[in-house]
Write a structure and sequence with these properties.
With about 500 residues, the protein is mostly helical. The chain folds into 2 domains: about 375 residues, no CATH class; about 120 residues. It is built from 20 helices and 4 strands. A 4-stranded mixed β-sheet has the order 1-2-4-3. The model has no long low-confidence stretch (mean pLDDT about 90).
């Protein structure tokens, strides 16, 4: 891929483009700053982060089956930017921009050139708003770490410093979510390939042990900290055992095919542009493009294993596919542009990548405008929080049995339980927590929380036993304080009756 014909002008333009990338990411993800809730998991991480800063640790204080990396990053964002939803979404913007920089470095390491890498970064930023990616979820948070590790694997220079850097990056990514394991293995395979070809078995074994140690070190350190607190068993059951129980349940083949189809439609631009690369290689078998195509395909397969591994196929899982698809799509776009525009391939491809991203933002905006123009108005969780905060007295609790955990965060109310995530407490995944969740629900209701928030659209997703206890408690001790109509149904706020 050719760079600018005037080196000094091209260098200045490149520096300006790099400086503008975070602003571009923020502009493409502007809508993330509007709602209080985008994804259920993000709501839980936000709550875990707030409680952690109050001394109430993840897992033992606020239970979840994920490692502590995501709430740790959000807690850091709270420390730097202040305790707010906007700080969490700003963290997402930073991670998307960082992933863009890593894609640029990766493309350059493969000889693809600056412009191709920047096109991949733009495509990634634009598609990051799809499939729940507007939230600062785990797939957004660990992406810069994984892509940077792969860029290190392909970069030149002594292998051992790169190996330790890769191990550190993948180790931190594993502390966010273990699904990065296949991509971590790919990174090591790329670095170790020369040793394997030369049959340097001793070097290969030492490198594998060192890399494994670096990858496991952050998780081992977290386990050690919990052990020092006398909470190792709770940590191990939640972060090491519960994910296997979760994956064993899986979903039906019909559900999996449905979710895969929906994800493919959301990523249609990337899929179409990526298909241009093998078509272009049939006519122009250029070495750099062939190298990118082979690497991108291997990366995509590793990412697909990460998506399939949990066996639940939730939309945000498919965000793992974005970095490899963005690289392949950018390469396909450049290959096609070269055939169409000869010497002006770079500006044509960059312009088209930006138009694709803007089209995605426009589609998101169209959906939001279809709901009305009050995009900045308080949403349901904020409206609920306003009522609760106005009436809640010090020491009183609220209970959110089947609605967004972010309500706890917005109200600043003390948690009534260490299981604030609905599916873990009242839903179908109660067995993951390793406790009698029916007894926990009964204990919460017996303590008479001042408010109860019920999502009627999620009513039948609860266990019948939990439904029965809630129905009885509400009928005997609560009154309807407010009702909020959402697209999916009605959310009801119940207030505890004052004793006569």
């Amino acid at each position: 891929m050719s760079e600018a014909s005037h080196p000094e002008t091209g260098r200045r333009a490149w520096i300006a483009a790099l400086l503008l990338l975070p602003l571009l990411a923020a502009g493409l993800r502007w809508a993330s700053f509007l709602p209080s809730v985008i994804d259920w998991d993000e709501s839980l991480y936000i709550l875990q982060a707030r409680e952690w800063l109050r001394g109430n640790w993840p897992i033992t204080g606020v239970w979840d089956m994920h490692p502590v990396g995501a709430p740790a990053m959000i807690a850091l964002a709270f420390i730097v930017f202040g305790e707010s939803i906007a700080a969490v979404r700003l963290l997402g913007v930073i991670c998307v921009a960082a992933t863009g920089y890593a894609l640029i470095a990766l493309a350059r390491a493969m000889g693809g050139g600056r412009a191709l890498g920047f096109a991949a970064a733009v495509l990634y930023a634009g598609h990051s708003i799809m499939l729940g990616g507007l939230s600062s979820n785990t797939e957004i948070l660990f992406a810069p770490l994984v892509v940077s590790a792969l860029a290190l694997a392909l970069a030149g220079g002594p292998p051992w410093p790169r190996l330790f850097g890769m191990g550190g990056l993948i180790g931190l990514a594993l502390l966010i979510k273990p699904v990065v394991t296949p991509e971590g293995c790919l990174a090591f395979a790329l670095l170790a390939w020369p040793w394997l070809r030369a049959r340097r078995w001793r070097s290969l074994l030492l490198a594998a042990l060192a890399y494994l140690g670096m990858c496991l070190a952050p998780t081992a350190l977290a386990g050690a900290v919990y052990a020092l607190r006398g909470e190792f068993t709770e940590w191990a059951e939640a972060t090491l055992l519960a994910p296997f129980v979760y994956a064993a349940a899986g979903v039906t083949l019909e559900t999996a095919l449905y979710r895969v189809t929906v994800a493919a439609l959301a990523l249609r631009w990337l899929l179409v542009l990526a298909l241009l690369l093998p078509l272009a290689l049939l006519r122009w078998p250029e070495a750099t493009l062939c190298r990118i195509a082979l690497f991108g395909l291997g990366w995509l397969l590793a990412a697909a294993v990460a998506v399939v591994g949990p066996r639940h196929f939730f939309p945000h899982y498919f965000l793992i596919l974005l970095p490899p698809l963005s690289l392949l799509a950018a390469a396909g776009l450049f290959a096609a542009a070269r055939g169409l525009t000869a010497g002006r391939a770079a500006p044509f491809a960059l312009g088209l990548s930006l138009l694709v991203s803007l089209d995605l933002v426009g589609g998101d905006l169209q959906t939001r405008l279809a709901r009305g123009f009050a995009m900045g108005s308080p949403d349901t969780p904020r409206r609920i929080a306003a009522i609760v905060n106005d009436e809640l007295r010090p020491g009183e609790t609220i209970f959110v049995p089947n609605y967004q955990p972010v309500v706890y965060f917005l109200t600043q109310a003390a948690l009534p339980t260490r299981f604030p995530f609905p599916v873990h407490l009242t839903g179908s995944f109660g067995r993951l927590a390793g406790v009698d969740t029916d007894a926990e629900v009964a204990r919460i209701l017996a303590a008479r929380p001042r408010f109860i928030v019920l999502d009627r659209s999620e009513w039948f997703s609860m266990r019948p036993s939990a439904m029965a206890m809630l129905t009885e408690a509400i009928e005997e001790h609560y009154e309807l304080a407010a009702s909020f109509v959402e697209e999916r149904g009605t959310v009801e706020l119940y207030r505890l009756l004052e004793p006569e």
